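Hey,
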Amino acid sequence: MKRPILIHPDPRLKKLCDPVADSSDELRKLADDMLETMYDAPGIGLAAPQIGILQRLIVLDCVKEEDGPPRPLVMFNPEVVASSDEINVYEEGCLSIPDQYAEVTRPKMVEVQWMDQHGNAQSEEFDGLWATCVQHEIDHLNGKLFIDYLKPLKRQMITRKMQKLKRERARV
């Protein structure tokens, strides 16, 4: 089931999320809903707070090739345990900040540990776009948005555009 995506500014997007105790049928259903919502948007990542759920759950799939098989990942309690000194700059966007993009600098490679939908511990190294995406989504779990990396003036400009967008959507 597709879920509505919160638009910045929304206080829920700035909150620290609670850890997930264990994988349950309810949480697996939530993860499925999040994947459906992400693919429909379309996006490459989605964090639970973006749909108003303050729990440490993210989904992502950064396969961009038309003929590439999808690789949906569901991560409960994801945590970056190591990161490279080498950095990457990507133009990031966010489903909660539609049609706004800015360059963000992050580590090029990260190692992430998480629990999968079956309650199993997982660990993987991510590089390039995957590394950027997983860091972006984990930031959401800590109440941080990609615009928080920008200079105050640019951040304020984007926030004003989102406030206007929310007013326009409320009138419809």
